[in-house]
Design brief:
This protein is of the alpha/beta class. The protein has 2 domains: 2-86; 186-374. The chain has 9 helices and 5 strands; from the N terminus they run H-H-H-E-E-E-H-H-E-H-H-E-H-H. The protein has a 5-stranded mixed sheet with strand order 1-2-3-4-5. Helix 1 (2-26) packs antiparallel against helix 2 (30-178) and helix 2 (30-178) crosses helix 9 (369-381). The radius of gyration is 66 Å and the shape is elongated.
């Protein structure tokens, strides 16, 4: 509205200016100028009035704007307060709902755990019942199997005993008729490689290993330790086996001595590892010479027929060393022929001792053959 009035006043002022200019051209300027001055005064009055009106309008608008802003702020504060209260209420309700839901979840989880525990307990009881049933069934079957096996074993044992008594009777009869004296154990030494080649004996090296093998196979009265086998000599062989002589009270010793050329053997192993043929050949020659020296020593110190056998045993405590000696053609036979020494390793010595033990048992059976014959005859009659 104020802008319109201001525009009208400006337009009227322009009209008066134009009229004054026209009248000036016509020559009658006095009254016109006076009228123009009056018009300007009226215009200024109106302008001042309009200015005051505008100021009042501006002041009123400012107050209205302030009132509106204040009202808006109060309304916004009330809205924010209401929103805050509502939001807090919603949060409280949400927390309460979550608490209730979580409580229900915990309760449900507890119920599920209880159900799972009960279910697992039922499963465990069922498994225990099944295991007990299986155990009882297995026990029953084992008892039946044991009973069946016992019956079959009893039958088989009786049959085998009968066959064994029959076989022993036949063998004793053959021995009684065909053997007048015990076979010479020394004649069977050459066949030792064919006897019990799979015997496994563990012990320590050297003398301890030799003693361990003899202790496992022979009885204490079948061998001696540190025996002076050669009459008039102070040299004692490590071990000597007692063999029966021509008469009942006569004993013949078979000397057994352990040797371990460890230095020569280690040199040979080192040469094998390096792989130089000349070094290997040199080390082999040194080892062979050392073994021949051992054989000569045993032959000279411990062999004294008829107090001993006409041969002795050299025991090598390591199988690989024994195999190395056998690798050289003619060495084994040379030691037997030249020095009357037979080389053995742990396996072959065990086989030899087992053969001697069998010979001892055969001799014992032969000595008491008549007594055994009478006992077996009585058993057969029963």
């Amino acid at each position: 509205m104020t802008e319109i009035l201001l525009g009208i006043l400006i337009l009227l002022a322009l009209v008066n200016v134009i009229i004054a200019l026209r009248n000036r051209r016509s020559g009658d300027t006095g009254p016109k100028l006076k009228e123009l001055g009056n018009s300007i005064l009226r215009f200024e009055t109106v302008l001042e009035k309009n200015e005051r009106t505008l100021k009042d309008e501006f002041e009123r608008n400012r107050r209205e704007n302030l009132e509106t802003a204040k009202t808006n702020r109060e309304e916004l504060s009330r809205s924010l307060l209401s929103f805050e209260e509502k939001f807090a209420s919603n949060i409280k309700e949400l927390n309460e709902l979550i608490r209730l839901k979580f409580g229900d979840f915990n309760k449900q989880q507890i119920d599920n755990n209880k159900q799972s525990t009960d279910h697992m307990k039922l499963i465990q009881e069922s498994i225990e019942k099944h295991l007990l049933s299986i155990r009882e069934d297995n026990t029953k079957q084992l008892n039946e199997m044991r009973k069946t096996v016992d019956e079959k074993l009893q039958t088989t044992l009786e049959k085998r005993l009968s066959e064994s008594f029959k076989l022993v009777s036949e063998r004793l009869e053959q021995v009684h008729k065909g053997l007048g004296e015990m076979q010479n154990i020394a004649n069977g030494v050459g066949d030792l490689k064919k006897v019990l080649s799979n015997v496994k004996t563990r012990g320590v090296l050297g003398e301890y290993q030799l003693g361990n093998i003899l202790e496992q196979i022979l009885t204490p009265d079948q061998y001696g330790k540190n025996v002076a086998t050669k009459k008039g000599s102070q040299a004692n062989v490590e071990y000597a086996i007692k063999l029966p002589g021509k008469s009942t009270d006569e004993e013949v010793w078979m000397p057994v001595d352990s040797k371990f050329p460890i230095e020569s053997y280690e040199v040979l192993l080192a040469a094998y590892e390096i792989g130089v043929p000349e070094d290997i050949e040199t080390a082999q020659k040194v080892l062979i010479k050392t073994v021949e020296g051992f054989a000569r020593e045993i032959s000279e110190k411990y062999i004294d027929p008829p107090h001993t056998t006409d041969f002795g045993i050299m025991f090598l405590p390591v199988e690989s060393l024994y195999a190395e000696i056998l690798r050289h053609p003619g060495l084994f036979e040379t030691l037997q022929r030249k020095y009357k020494i037979t080389i053995t390793g742990p396996t072959t010595l065990s086989a030899l001792m087992n053969s001697l033990q069998m010979g001892f048992r055969t001799l014992a059976v032969q000595k008491r053959s008549s007594e055994v014959w009478n006992v077996l005859g009585a058993v057969k009659n029963e």
